[in-house]
Specification:
By secondary structure, the protein is α/β, with parallel strands linked by helices. It folds into 2 domains: 333 residues, Alkaline Phosphatase, subunit A (3-Layer(aba) Sandwich); 82 residues, Arylsulfatase, C-terminal domain (2-Layer Sandwich). Helix content is 32%, strand content 17%. The strands form 3 sheets. Strands 1, 2, 4, 5, 6, 7, 8, 9 and 10 form a 9-stranded mixed β-sheet that branches. Strands 11-13-14-15 form a 4-stranded antiparallel β-sheet, with helices on one face. A hairpin with a 2-residue loop joins β13 and β14. It starts with a helix and ends in a 14-residue tail after the last helix.
Length: 454
């Protein structure tokens, strides 16, 4: 062997050994995603009926942001934000499904691809969390909700979802069994990663407490009470069922002796306020820009690295992507808008941010090329003030299309249910917060349905 090749081999072996050693030092990362749950529906958030002992314990061990938010209150856009670290108007996944109309049909014909495939292909434009983590030696596993094709297309090394165009491949197929039918696939993956001495990333997004609300009888009976509609009792029971699965997952970390080297992050995809009349939800919850739709507790637990605290700041799920990458010592793409919260989490220092932002679109995407065609709201929260602006996007078959076309300004500290619109009495505040929104993202075509400066 020549000196040149011997040197190259030595460098290669040193690099590989270095990568292996570094991988052993990296934290495991678990992202727990609730599906359709109100921010109020936890013991630690003050609910006086629903029991969530495992998430209550997690909250006590975490940096807890009670005022957490998702930028878009619908599952697919919320999940795509987490996977790519981008807002919906950037990644073009603004709704769950493409609308069946002439605009989309013409584009489908031009591209010679189905509308679903065109939407899914948007994930290919970004480096996803598992793709970047793989460069750091991580194994990754997808379970539960996943809309963007197969788990492999999202960059996961392992997973459950076969994805479109496979049968039942709309939003999770086989993956939707996790939690409802046990935890074996997740636990088997964890065992494999431990055996291989590899750090792992786990996407745990069970179809819970999402409909169908069919909880175990023991839990339904527990919440059945005189005067409480059965629809509400079923939903309450579903929340506790979800909590039980989280407890099983967290216990597995303890049983395997890896809890101290695992960063656990918790968030929900969007809110849900159960209707007492039927199995659906109330208007100001899922899909709405109101607190019942966008607000969620956000938690970060990393024993020995992050001291538990109940933080008063605003938090947003757009920060989860860069924070995970920072914890894994991975490079964060320059064009991601979220903040790396790790320095603030580990030191206790305040988060350097003035406001958080969000947007709401129709469930069905009116024009798969143009997100503004489905834009219904933009919103911004600064301190305790929240501004909602309504837009003329096509709502499609929404049960509750926007009715309030004038600007809406709420003081969330005094009016958490957003009943008292202060916009007319505070035009300067509306103007200033509109400028904040425009500095974040200003639509080029969509028109505001009212006056932005009343």
């Amino acid at each position: 062997m020549t000196h040149r090749y011997a040197t190259l081999l030595a460098v290669l072996l040193t690099t590989l050994v270095g990568l292996t050693a570094n991988a052993a030092d990296k934290p495991n990362i678990i992202l727990i995603l609730s599906d359709d749950q109100s921010f109020t529906d936890y013991g630690f958030m003050g609910h006086d009926v629903i029991q969530t002992p495992h998430l209550d314990k997690l909250a006590s061990q975490s940096v807890l942001f009670r005022r957490g938010y998702v930028p878009t209150a619908l599952c697919r856009p919320a999940l795509m934000t987490l996977a790519t670290g981008t807002y919906a108007h950037v990644n073009l996944i603004t709704g769950n499904d493409p609308a069946k109309n002439d605009i989309n049909a013409a584009y489908v014909k031009e591209q010679n691809k189905s509308a679903k495939e065109i939407l899914i292909s948007n994930v290919d434009r970004f480096e996803t969390l598992p793709q970047i983590l793989a460069k750091q030696g991580y194994l990754s596993h997808q379970s539960g909700k996943w809309w963007e094709g197969s788990y492999q297309r999202g960059g996961f090394t392992h997973g459950m979802t076969r994805g479109y165009p496979k049968p039942a491949g709309r939003h999770g197929d086989d993956g939707l069994a996790i939690g409802r039918e046990g935890m074996a696939p997740v636990f088997d993956f964890m065992d494999m990663a431990i055996e291989q001495d590899k750090p792992f990333f786990l996407w745990y997004a069970p179809f819970l407490p999402h409909t169908p609300h069919n909880p175990p009888k023991r839990l339904f009976d527990q919440y059945t009470a005189e005067g409480r509609p059965k629809t509400v009792a079923r939903y309450f029971a579903m929340v506790e069922w979800f909590d039980e699965t989280c407890g099983q997952l967290l216990k597995q970390l303890e049983d395997k002796g890896i809890a101290d080297n695992t960063l656990v992050i918790y968030v929900t995809d969007n809110g849900w306020v159960q209707s007492p009349k039927n199995g659906s939800y109330e208007p100001r919850s899922k899909r709405s820009p109101n607190e019942g739709g966008t607000r969620t507790p956000i938690m970060y637990r990393w024993p020995g690295k992050i001291a538990p605290a109940d933080r008063p700041e605003l938090a947003t799920s757009i920060d989860i992507y860069p924070t995970i990458l920072a914890a894994a010592s991975a490079d964060i793409p320059d064009d991601r808008p979220g903040l790396n919260l790790l320095p603030a989490l580990t030191t206790g220092k305040a988060i350097a941010r003035d406001a958080i932002f969000g947007e709401s679109f129709a469930h069905d995407i009116y024009d798969i090329q143009n997100p503004e065609a489905s834009l219904l709201y933009r919103w911004v929260i600064q301190d305790n003030l929240k501004l909602l602006l309504t837009y003329d996007g096509n709502p499609g078959k929404m049960k509750y299309p926007p009715k309030d076309v004038a600007p809406q300004l709420y003081d969330l500290a005094k009016d958490p249910l957003e009943n008292n619109n202060l916009a007319k009495d505070h035009p300067d505040q509306v103007k200033a917060m509109t400028a904040l929104l425009n500095g974040w993202y200003q639509p080029k075509q969509a028109k505001h349905s009212g006056n932005e400066s009343p």
